[in-house]
């Protein structure tokens, strides 16, 4: 099970509602066990094209990847796998 201790959040591509736009919780580690939260984690996960089990505002879990072209450390953009 993924842990979400770093409270990293991100935007999801398509149909963004401004009230919930950045409430998708990014886990501490990606599918391969490497860090994926924070600036260093974002860079590593983007380079490796890692999948992450992201928690949506409604509590559901789904697999996402970072959008390599649009993500920044302060505004990570997530694309559903």
Write the layout of secondary structure elements.
Blueprint: E1 8-12, E2 24-26, H1 38-48, E3 52-55, E4 61-66, E5 77-80
Parallel strand pairs: 1-5
Antiparallel strand pairs: 1-2, 3-4, 4-5
Key phrases:
81 residues, alpha+beta, five-stranded mixed beta sheet, 1 helix, globular
Question: Could you tell me the strand content as a percent range?
Answer: 25-35%
- The average pLDDT value, as a whole number, equals 87
| Structural class by helix and strand composition | alpha+beta
Order of helices and strands: EEHEEE
Shape: globular
Rg over CA atoms, rounded to whole Å, is 11 Å
Rounded to the nearest angstrom, the distance between the terminal CA atoms is 18 Å
Describe the strand arrangement of the main beta sheet, using strand numbers: 2-1-5-4-3
- E-strand count: 5
- The DSSP helix count reads 1
Biggest beta sheet summary = 5 strands, mixed
Poorly predicted runs: none
Structurally, how many domains make up the residues? Answer: 1
- Percent helix range: 10-25%
Structure in words:
This protein is α+β, with helices and mostly antiparallel strands. It has one domain (8-80). 14% of the residues lie in helices and 27% in strands. It contains 1 helix and 5 strands. The protein has a 5-stranded mixed β-sheet with strand order 2-1-5-4-3. The longest helix has 11 residues, at 38-48. It is globular and about 30 Å long. The two termini are 18 Å apart.
Short description:
The chain has 81 residues and is of the alpha+beta class. The chain has one helix and five strands; from the N terminus they run ββαβββ.
């Amino acid at each position: 099970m993924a842990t979400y201790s770093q409270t990293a959040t991100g935007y999801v591509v398509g149909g963004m509602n401004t009230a919930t736009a950045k409430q998708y919780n990014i886990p501490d580690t990606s599918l391969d066990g490497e860090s994926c939260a924070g600036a260093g984690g974002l860079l590593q996960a983007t380079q490796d094209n890692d999948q992450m089990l992201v928690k949506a505002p409604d509590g559901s879990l789904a697999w996402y990847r970072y959008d390599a072209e649009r993500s920044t450390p302060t505004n990570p953009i997530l694309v559903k796998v």
